[in-house]
Amino acid sequence: MKNKKLLAVLAALAVFVVAYLGFTSLSGTKGNSQATNSEHKTIGVLQFVTHESLDEIYRGIEQGLADEGYQKGDNLTINFMNAEADQSQIQKMSEKLVADKNAALIGIATPAAQGLANATKDIPVIMGAVTDPVGANLVTDLKKPGGNITGVSDATPVADTVELIQAITPDAKTIGVLYSSSEDNSLSQVEAFTEAAERADYTVVPYAVPSTNEIATTVTAMLPKVDAVWTPTDNTIASAFPTVISAAKEAKKPVYTSVETMVEEGGIASVTLSQFDLGVATGKMVAAVLNGADPAKTPVEIFSEGTIVVNKKVAEELGLTIPASLLEKATTIIE
Q: Does 5 reside within a domain?
């Protein structure tokens, strides 16, 4: 009997020791993760231009980093620069961020990411909202980037946008596409939209502008020749969007966009990707790289599932009716 009691005590003691060692191991693992984030990191961010969409991406980046344990002002310093669409500043700022030996670099929008990519082949560069990374010569393969660059790509859901145009403006036959000829990401979007729209029997007329200086005259020439206007995710157009909306409103022509904030500014509707969520995903990818992930082996994350945003007020001003079925599907209705 005594032997049996002794065996029971020894068995209980063994279970306790195993459990204790397991707990210690788990605690040690968690402690190592926190130790990684407790080491202060400094990163550089280059934003192409100031406008609400890119500002939302930057806010999302800060949130994504914080979600992963990197809090600005605590264990993280962010060197932020904005080129304000000046190509010469992109080069200078990229070189400065590289010279400052930041642990990682973030390029918000294609021109900014390209500037950073040209400035370094060693420091990790994370793309924020680059629509066509391969076409922009930033990576050679989305699944296996192979260099010091990876990031997040926003694939505009153009086929869904064409369906939106059909539903709201069923009598439209000609669509004018306004975009910047200097942005590689815009060119790929225009090609995809044109293909989708022509399959739906629309006539698509492209209007390219080299800079914001030509937008007013281009829009004035375009509006009498089209029934509706579509703009891709384009930083040049976004930065001068009030000019586009002012002329379109006077001409009584609807403007379909690719970004929610531009619908809020006067566009009629969009199938849009959340710029903030894009930023959050970018921030989390930066955190992974800071924690040791290899950009060369980190696939580019693709955002392509959009949500419907409609501006009911603009539709009423243009004498258009948004179908009830579409309003039911919309995630955001501006009235």
A: no
Position 12 in a domain = no
Q: How many CA atoms lie within 13 A of 286 on its CB side?
A: 36
Cβ pair 296, 306 in contact under 8 A: no
* Arithmetic mean of pLDDT, 159-185: 94
Give all strands (DSSP E) within the chain, no chain letters.
41-47, 76-82, 104-108, 125-128, 149-154, 174-180, 203-209, 228-230, 255-257, 269-272, 301-303, 307-311, 332-334
Q: Check whether residue 144 and residue 162 sit in a common domain.
A: no
Q: How many domains does the chain have?
A: 2
Residue 43 has pLDDT above 70, yes or no: yes
Residues 146, 264, single domain; the answer is: no
Query: pLDDT per residue over 229-273, tens digit each?
Result: 999 988 899 989 999 999 999 999 999 999 888 999 999 999 988
Q: What is the pTM of this model?
A: 0.76
Question: What range defines the domain where residue 322 resides?
Answer: 158-272+307-334
